[in-house]
Amino acid sequence: MGDQMQFIVEKLNQEPFRKNYNLISFDSLESVQLLQLLNDVLGEIDPKVRRALRAAHASCSGFGTEMCFSLGLAQYLLVSSLSLSHRSAFRQGLVTGSKPVIHPLLHWLLQRTSELKKRAYLARFLVKLEVPAEFLQDDTVADINKQYEELMEAFKNLHKEYEQLKISGLSTAEIRRDISAMEEEKDQLVKRVERLKKRVETVQNHQRMLEIARQLRLEKEREESLAQQKQEQKSQLFHAEQRLQRVQLQLKEMQDAVADSKPESLMKKLEEEINFSSYLVTEKMPRELESKKASVYLLQKVVAEPAMTQSDLTALQSEINEVNAQMNQLIEKRMMKCEPTDSKFSMYRQQASIISRKKEAKAEELQAAKEEMSRLEKQVQQRSSQAHELEGSEILTEDELKQYVNKLRSKNTLYKKKRLEIAEITAEYGILQRTEELLKQRHEAIQQQLQMIEEKKGISGYSYTQEELERVSAVKSEMDEMKGQTLDNMSEMVKKLNAVVAEKKASLAPVIKELRQLRQKCQELTQECDEKKIQYDSCAAGLESNRSALEQEVKGLLEECAQEESNYRYVHCMKRTLEVQLQRAKAEMKAYVSPDPQERRKAIREQYTRMILEQENLGKKLREKQKLVRESHGPNMKQRKMWQDFEQLMECKRECFQKQQNQAAIGQVIQEGGKDRLVL
């Protein structure tokens, strides 16, 4: 209880209450002040509740009902779990401001302030208005109610999205930074677009080119959508081919089955299937259904019966044992009295029962085999689809596998032929490489001989210089041709540019004139706009000052109204409390003045008088007992001292006795050792 009050005081001293309580001042609050405090806490959670409580405060019953309704919306556990009688007592405790009711309620509310604020906000939109069924017969009312439910569901979805966004960790600062960054990017893009527009305006037929670029973009988007549709169509075609292959496989299996069988065998198989199905429907399924119904009936019967103890279980077990013993006796008597004909019939019955049990077992095995086969077929289909997704092909059947093996064999022979050809080409490549090396060596030898001859003739490097001169002359001729072409192109380009500039000047002359007029008009409109803006700012400033003054006045009046309402509620509660106290005083006076002794005993004065007499008698007894204790204290202390001395004396005697016994044992051991030495 102390921890609870400490928590309440700490929460009330914080924002937004700021009550400056301590444990003593909070505990000394009267019932009216506690009710006012509870009203403030509920008003902080939901201002709508504060207004409703103010309206209901005129009548105490309405106040208790409204308070209980508010706590029910907040899902206060004590209210929701109470019975009707206890709930009326709880409501009475709320009206009178009882501490055992108010303190736990304040503790519960202050523990869950944020959660209850959220619940109160949602309750305004999610507490459904119950419309009577007879009103819903009207089409207009039914449509409005349906719209109301749809709006409620939409609000639920929006609130869930809002909570998810809050949990996702996106703060407003980050969003603002992102928005500012995007605005900067937008400004940069706008500037870039303007620069590109200025560049494009100088180009001839730029509008037509822009239109063509726009059409190109649209066509590209259309091409992407068509590619996506093509991909979807391919996937659908792939799935359709898979289904077709499965159906063809099933058709092939059916055809093989039909080709290998005769009409008689097909009829026999159909008869077997019909017999098996009829057996399941007529014999097995009804028997299982009856057994299930019987077990369900027994279970319901067991559930309906009261709980059984161990003694009941032992009694039932003993009854079961007795019934089993009686059944065994009856079976023995029947076996002793049975005739030979009955024994034959019993043998046939046993055989029939054995056959029926075997039949049931085989039917169950067949059913399990069919289920296993269907499961394996599903598993095969799943594995085939997985294999197709991984490898892009279906699992091959036996015939397809044979064809695949034959293809592999033919490819293997082709591979061997190609491998022989590659070996031949490799050998030929080695020969050609060796030939190339020999020719290079011969070329180097000829070059050395040529250099030696040139040195002998005195014209060393003649062949090399001649080759270089031929190469340089070829390069020079190519460069001259390129320069000539470049000059021609540049002259043509200059002519074209001069012509384009002349055309642009001629076409832009009227536009420049119009632009000058528009600039002058723009300056006039800008000046007029500045004047209007100054007038607007002055008018807005005056209206804003008037609005702030009116807001301050309204705020003061609202505070005054709230103070007066608080004083009224305080006076009303004080009046109610005084009336209750006056009623109790009148009842006390009536009981005290009453000539009836029974009524007089009910009076509080008589009760307190009896309690005072009882306490006085108890005090006398306690004083007498104290006197006896004081008189016997000295002798008792002496006796206690004597007993302690006696205990010490006995402890010393015990120690002396133990020492004496130890010395005697040691002497005896020494004497026995001396005797042993003498004997030796």
UniProtKB/TrEMBL annotation:
Subcellular location: Cytoplasm, Cytoskeleton, Cilium basal body
Domain IFT81 calponin homology: 3-130
Entry keywords, A to Z: Acetylation, Cell projection, Cilium, Cilium biogenesis/degradation, Coiled coil, Cytoplasm, Cytoskeleton, Differentiation, Phosphoprotein, Spermatogenesis
GO molecular function: tubulin binding
Classification via Pfam families: IFT81_CH
GO biological process assignments: cell differentiation; cilium assembly; intraciliary transport; spermatogenesis
Gene3D superfamilies: Intraflagellar transport protein 81, N-terminal domain
GO cellular component, one term: ciliary basal body
Coiled coil: 141-257, 313-393, 508-567
Entry-linked InterPro entries: IFT81, IFT81_CH, IFT81_N_sf
PANTHER family registered for this protein in UniProt: INTRAFLAGELLAR TRANSPORT PROTEIN 81 HOMOLOG
Described purpose of this protein according to its UniProt entry: Component of the intraflagellar transport (IFT) complex B: together with IFT74, forms a tubulin-binding module that specifically mediates transport of tubulin within the cilium. Binds tubulin via its CH (calponin-homology)-like region. Required for ciliogenesis. Required for proper regulation of SHH signaling. Plays an important role during spermatogenesis by modulating the assembly and elongation of the sperm flagella.
Family per similarity comment: Belongs to the IFT81 family.
Protein name, entry field: Intraflagellar transport protein 81 homolog
Organism of origin: Mionectes macconnelli (McConnell's flycatcher)
Gene: Ift81
